[in-house]
């Protein structure tokens, strides 16, 4: 190939994918010639006398690498979301909505592992409850067993009612001495 047919300046080197390059289905990929790595490729192409076809092939190798990396990252993210259970996608979406509402949409980009999602959910729960404790019935006195319904009590004779009442602590009804 003649040297005169090759690009003489880096800006003359076209950054484009090979004609036969196929992007996998469901993957979106675009070449941005303004990226610094392409300026370096253009300079190297002029320095080493690479043809347009050679540059295009190198851009294709770069694109395959990027697409492969993005596919690997997407698969890893899907596996992490699957660890969150059947509601995993909904949980991630809910956190994304929360971050958007709080004016921090950049935070959505960090939701890539199950652990990060769970930690973010804890932070959101603290924010929503304003740090207060959750309600618990654990301090309540349990229902005393042996109680009868109102209608069964109404059918009892006075003596049966007295016997029934004696089953329970009556201390609350005692007069306190001063």
Structure description:
The protein has 178 residues and is an all-alpha fold. Among the domains are: 1-75, no CATH class; 84-131, no CATH class. Helix content is 49%, strand content 0%. It has helices spanning 36-48, 52-83, 88-101, 114-129, 150-154, 158-165. It is rod-shaped and about 120 Å long. The termini are far apart.
Describe this structure in a few short sentences.
49% of the residues lie in helices and 0% in strands. The protein is built from six helices and no strands.
Salient structural properties:
single chain; 178 residues; mainly alpha
Topology:
Layout: H1 36-48, H2 52-83, H3 88-101, H4 114-129, H5 150-154, H6 158-165
Helix pairs in contact: 3-4
Our estimate of the beta-strand percent is under 5%
Shape: rod-shaped
User: Could you say which structural class the secondary elements and strand pairing correspond to?
Assistant: mainly alpha
Average pLDDT for all residues:
86
Task: Note poorly predicted spans.
Answer: none
Q: Quaternary state, please?
A: single chain
Q: Distance N terminus to C terminus?
A: 116 Å
What percentage of residues falls in helices of 4 or more residues? Answer: 40-55%
Number of helices: 6
What is the radius of gyration computed over CA atoms, rounded to a whole number of angstroms? 36 Å
Main sheet makeup: none
Give the strand tally.
0
Helix-strand sequence: HHHHHH
